[in-house]
Write a structure and sequence with these properties.
Blueprint lengths: L1 H11 L4 H12 L5 H8 L3 H13 L19 E9 L4 H11 L5 E6 L6 E7 L2 H10 L7 E8 L10
Antiparallel strand pairs: 1-3, 1-4, 2-3
Length: 161
Amino acid sequence: MFVFYRLIEQSMTELDDINRKILRTLSSDGRMSNLDLSDAVGLSPSACLRRVQELERSGVIQGYRAVLDPVKTGVGFTAYVTVGLNTHTKASQEAFESAIADAPEVRECHNITGSWEYLLRIEAADLAAYKSFHTEVLGTVPQVSAITSYVVMASPKDERA
């Protein structure tokens, strides 16, 4: 009986064409009403709601966010920053991640492969605020051995929510 239930549960969270269409549609407008969403994907409202709830319950949809205007929120400077650590240990990674976890300028932190250990997306009011973050936060983390900044000049395509 458990195996049968597990198969039903797995099949409900599979990303079939309708679920993919729901996800694409919600990605562009997460505040869309269920009625509008059901029209957009070609389902009845109740079937659409069940699918969305299952996608949420299963963790495919992890949350909904507001897309903010950086200029109107005081963010005039964005940079991607690669960070190299001086030792390649789990303890070093954990210490670095802990040190930057509460830094509001760090909007994204990715542990990556390649020449560097981390890629950060930093948002600050301006260049002076970024310099302060670079010196006062990143520059004081003992595990950091290298920092390279890539300043964003424009973002012709940005689909992050």
